[in-house]
Amino acid sequence: MLMPDPDQNVINRRDEICAELRKLVPAECVIDSKESMKAFDADGLSAYRQLPLAVVLPETVNQIAAVMKWCHQQGVKIVPRGAGTSLSGGALPLADAVLLGLGKFNRILEVDYDNRCVVAQPGVTNLAITHAVQADGFYYAPDPSSQIACSVGGNVAENSGGVHCLKYGLTTNNLLGIEIVTMEGEILRLGGKHLDAGDYDLLGIMTGSEGLLGVVSEVTLRILQKPATARALLVGFDDTGAAGRAVGDVIAAGIIPAGMEMMDGLAINAAEDFANAGYPREAAALLIIELDGPEVEVDALIDRVEAIVGKAGATSVRISQSEEERNLFWAGRKSAFPAVGRISPDYLCMDGTIPRRKLPDMMRRMASLSQQYGLRVANVFHAGDGNLHPLILFDANQPGELERAEEFGADILRSCVEMGGVLTGEHGVGVEKRDLMTIQFTEDDLKQQQRLKCAFDPGHLLNPGKVFPHLHRCAELGRLHVHKGKMPHPDLPRF
Amino acid sequence: MSDIKATDLRDVQDAIQAAVAAKTRLEVRASGTKRHLGVAAAYDHVLDVSAMSGIIDYQPEELVMTLRAGTPMDQVEKALADARQMLAFEPPSMTKILGEATAGVRGSIGGIIATNLSGPRRLTAGAARDFLLGFEAISGRGEQFKSGGKVMKNVTGYDLSKLMCGSYGTLAVMDEITLKTIPAPETSRSLLVGADSFSEAVKLIATIFATPHEPGSAAILPQPIAAGEQADTGNAFTIVIRLEGIEPSVNDRSQHLQSGFGGESLDDMASQALWLRIRDVQPLAERPQDIWKVSCAPSDAPRLIDSLDLRQEMRFFADWAGGLIWMSSAAPDLGAQLRSAVARLNSGFAMLVRDVGATKQKVAPLQPLTGGMFELHKRVKASFDPLGVLNYGRMHEGV
Hints:
The structure holds two protein chains of two kinds. Helices cover about 35% and strands about 20% of the residues of chain A.
């Protein structure tokens, strides 16, 4: 992975920069010793590591603004970081950039039941939002699997999803407002407790922008009343194609389950070894279909779904009879990653999305790629929304295996785009998928995105080297090539 | 002023490149039902995109529809209804209050996206901006680009779809768009609950939303409007709560809510008819007066209403649990009063939707932007349309 050439002038000024930063934030909030910075040298994509120029952990929004303004004036780059759980390297440090950590912004500022929202600082964890309101029957819907650790500011940056986004949406659909600090050090409020402002949806653009447009300093999140009940079906199939069709049949019947997850044979057995969830080991594919809502509704829908999957060729069906049993169904799925970690020294987790009807094609493609690369692949999917998480098993101690696994992964993502899908459903582009962006987008597509970046950060100082495979200077991107074009047939009357 | 009629993106590109070369300004228009929203700016040519119409691909079990932006809403809704699906954000028709540009034409899906207009279900299901998955367009630079995709879960690159929603055609001209669809509810029912004051109504709705009975929409009708809509509870205000879903669920939830909060209920057909009128702002349509909408935090709404000294002759009702207030008045300073009332809140905006006189000449129709937000808007505009070729000035001066 090639990162932009570090600016040696900035690196040479490191001591001076740290001294200046200490004038802007309390001295102990600037970390510059190698040993202490080690804790910040990677995020969830731990194959890539880099020590930053310095780490700054501001305590107030005015300190964030002061640091960013100064860095902007001095031409010093900034990499923002929440909890550091990104799976795509979004928070990977740069040698010539200040790492701006939001870890001290860990307070919930307001719980507002009248308007059904929570105002929080960006370093609060995703799960802490639900914890703050669950005694009153509310919860925060987006539930990325890292929710115990990941921060809500990071959720905004990555537009995080989870297993329930088929019914409840991604972060972007559950976010009412944010406060941001621009690279120039300006503090702006986008959205709020009201819905739909009458200006450009900069809130929507900031969500999922991977820390390239601004630093999130406060969030206002929509909270929902917890559904009265939830039940799940555990459905086995002897063919992944049939399982895929069953998913489509459920939705075609007008039912949107809270979650609809699929696992293939290798994943089923790894998970069963790990969690003893009672999964059917002989099945080629397993669906977990969860329904939530009022009890009478869930009971009625469970019956309908049972009939649909039966018709679709299910070989086994179990329906949770208690909250304990429902959690057990999920225990296997939720431990799928560590479970696969037990059957292989290393694995790569991919994250593409395809139109759901392409699932059988995709399974065949993966089987043939698996043979071609000589590496096993275990599959877990958010089947309801077509989001794949193939886990490629490899051994980093075997020379060349990591590279082979990465090539395999790139081929899977290429296939996703070929089948009408996209490179990433929820993990983000970051550095991991940066160089694959040209598979999905044309040069003009990417240039238009970068022009938007220029509107927020004309100096390319905020989190550079992420998302875009080629960095174009803003002046070059802004140049308008005026065609000699005249109005076609200018002399004709037009109606 | 001459019209340019585009049939595909190539035509659009030609027109925009010519406008860039000649430094002329284009008004982008499909059926024109929403052209009176926003600033009445002057343009050199109309770029008519109404011929860029038709559904390209609709797979109900995939929950996605790919179509061209000029497709009439009636055609979109017919296709959805045939598959027993819908656009969850409940796109309204503006023709009841803004009139028809062409007889019988309700507007295009592109117009809905460009203005990010959403109906009563927006409260719980999301806005137009939550359902645009991807698009192809020509920017004001005359370059073709795409963003997003045709799948539901996608975080690849910036989410430019969000930006297109509510940009009033000032950034790019879309052709192919992909929308997320969802199954239509099997049935619905509404409860009518009385309240003695607007503020009590807002509080009561908050209490109802703190139950697990999944209310989907909530409007507040003052007595004269409730009476006109055959939804009168006899109280100063009537709260309308909509429940949707499968029949046993709707029955169960409505029984629970009725035993907790009392009130009468409207059956599926009556409920649908009432919400259609609320969606299309019909209770305010008949009087020939300016119509404004205000979006604010629901709990701020009573304070906002109380602060207006036009309460006596103003006609209003609220949707979105109190967070959307529609109002009409003959008083010339309603706009000025609303703007200062909104400025006293933490967040919100006021927009002039119908101008029966010359109000726009005195008051900006969209909430004015200031400081860094205005600067950023101009920069975002310039990043797509540096010369101001597309719908220039339609939202704000310089945008």
